[in-house]
Amino acid sequence: MLTTNPFDVSQDGDTLHEECGIFGISGAADAARLVALGLHALQHRGQEAAGITSFDGTEFHTHRAMGHVAGNFDREEVMVPLRGSVACGHVRYSTTGETALRNVQPLYADLASGGFAIAHNGNISNAMRLRRDLVRRGSIFQSTSDTETIIHLVATSNYRTVVDKFIDALKRVEGAYSLIVMTPEGMIACRDPLGIRPLVMGKIEQSDGSEAVIFASETVALDVVGATFVRSIEPGELVMVKGSEITSHSPFAPVAPRPCIFEFVYFSRPDSISEDRSVYTVRKAIGAQLAIESPVEADLVIPVPDSGTPAALGYAQESGIPFELGIIRSHYVGRTFIQPGDKVRHLGVKLKHNANRALIKGKRVVLIDDSIVRGTTSLKIVEMMREAVAAEVHMRIASPPTRHSCFYGVDTPERAKLLAATKNLEEMATYIKADSLAFISIDGLYKALGEPQRNAIRPSHCDACFTGDYPTTLTDQDDVSSVDQFALLAERMI
Ligand code: SF4
Question: pLDDT, tens digit, for every residue of 14-31?
């Protein structure tokens, strides 16, 4: 269970928090150092903790730490012991399991078949039920992470080879998973059958002419280590790397993929390429579509930094209203800088975001943000514009209203705490004190992705946090699932 530090101005409890990022490399001298660089490029996906495991042909070596990659994995005393030409790593935002070092990944276990390290982006949505069954049968869990269930399912599988044990385990889990696994036999990368979470493959040439294989959550991590993008791992695909041999397996019955649409709205870095599309270009198209759907007379288009910036550029270009940086974000706000005390805590918000007062005074502004979760940040930002004497404050959101929780590895609050789950548009505008508020439509979001509209029968993406149309069964959430599915059916009947 997550807790939010009230004095932590880097976590105001009102954003959809990043999920996790994974990076693995096989066949590179100093593999762990490249993993550290790759994780650094994926830091936006999880800032709570990081870990790297390497394999030197005989032994596995692991270092896991709370905090950022920089400050942990740039220290020689940490990096020197991470020997070997195979390594994988993980940056974490805790979505399941308490915030503790024992939950930091890669998780590692000594199995009968040898060492087994695993890095996971996603969430196993039947982990609680699987865990109960495993514990009843004698498994002893070391962490509270959903990922550990996979290790125990592998350990207790009756199949002979580690790959078959792993496939056997995956066939029993529900939910979202992009995984990188290391065993003495080699590295395995795989994506769940729906491909909810991303995973790409790249290569990097070594000084001896050989090629190391890389797996990463986003292409930006390949860019940073100087690797070439090869392809995405297909939904339901499992790729095994043994030395220079790469084999692809498709152990699951094929289903229509449903990758997470929120990667385009918020999670992925704008300089990443996802599903053959530039994330930056899609975000600008979302902003342009928003301007078409919800125009407003105004003097300035202002992004809520940083994630609202490309959409704000798209809105400005489509509407012809000038784009200006009316909110300046400090990049130097630490997690524990602010001391207790109401007055100081309030000032902490301004440490992170501050109005560019000279620009705002007397102007009608359109603020562009990626999403509204609880509404508390939007309220603070609108109030900040009012204090800077804006003539009018309009809010435009580059995603549809977030009405449902995510069970696929993204930290959303329970439904009752989502502003859009309990209020209509007018009530939300009143709550955040905006002169007007509008969200992009779900069809508009799909238009920005190049589709004519959302295909209601067979949507191309997971969009459950907007529609409640969860693409998997949610065994651990039976109550929530039945309520949401009922609501969805009711909506469809209308
Ligand atoms: Fe992404 Fe939303 Fe689906 Fe979660 S519910 S995977 S955030 S689209």
Answer: 555 557 999 999 999 999
